[in-house]
Amino acid sequence: MTNVSLIVNLCHTQQTPSSKCSTNFEFMFQNAFSDALESKKIISLNTYGDNATWIGFVLAYTSEFVTIEHVSKYGQYDGVITLKVTDIERVDLDDEMCRSVNFLYHNTKEFSKLSKTYANLENDMGDFFSVLSECKEKNLICSIDTKELYLSCFVLNIDFEEIHILAIDTHGQKDGECHVKMEDIDYVSVGRLQEIRRLLLYNIHYRS
User: Fold this and answer.
1) What would the pLDDT profile of 18-40 be if each residue is shown by its tens digit?
2) 182 and 120: one domain?
3) What residues does 82 pair with on adjacent strands?
4) Residue 76 and residue 105: Cα distance in Å, rounded?
5) Cβ contacts of residue 178 below 8 Å, gap of 6+?
6) What are the tens digits of pLDDT across the range 96-140?
């Protein structure tokens, strides 16, 4: 797929948000809005200042405003957002984030199914070793936090001394293996939305 990324740093002189190269970029944005509306593709809008990113389906647009059906990073409907075109710094179509959210949006039943799988885990295990061992046995993504790192991962191997994990990034891609001492783990989480999201995306990358 072609990655359409429109970045407003192509101007040769420094611009403030109120005086940026509006004509050229607003024209390119209009083309992106039109493409997203006609093809019903998910679009990503990055705004100035607070680095906010809004992802969703374009519902309508003018030369001054764009309105989208906002979709959360978990693929769930999250209201309707209207933005000023002049506040938009970059527009993305077909990048990894858009593709990930689009897949989650169209696979809510599978998301719900995985949620139930996590909900059926034993709740009386009571210690890190037991929790992580069950995640390994059932091939589920969990998250571990230490003083140095926070990772969502598959458990590849575990004993009472250390855990061998495969890290999974926010788009469900493999992100390398590492070994962590059990004594360095501060907490473990299982079945949160971020873990279900990564597992579902992982499945389409490597198990479909």
Assistant:
1) 444 555 666 789 999 999 999 99
2) yes
3) 67
4) 6
5) 151, 164, 165, 167
6) 999 999 999 999 999 999 999 999 887 666 799 999 999 999 999
Tokens of 34: 């039109």
Contact 84, 169 (CB under 8 A): no
Range of the domain at 83: 4-105
Structure tokens at 56: 């969703």
The H or E element that residue 190 is part of is: strand 185-190
pTM: 0.77
Instruction: Give one DSSP letter per residue of 96-164, joined into a string.
Output: HHHHHHHHHHTTHHHHHHHHHHHHTS-S---SHHHHHHHHHHHT--EEEEESS-EEEEEEEEE-SSEEE
Q: Count how many domains the chain has.
A: 2
* Tokens coding 204: 């389409």
Beta strands in 22-116 (DSSP E): 42-47, 53-61, 65-71, 77-84, 88-93
Give exposure, 10-26, as e/b (b: 16+ Cβ within 10 Å): eeeeeeeeeebeeeebe
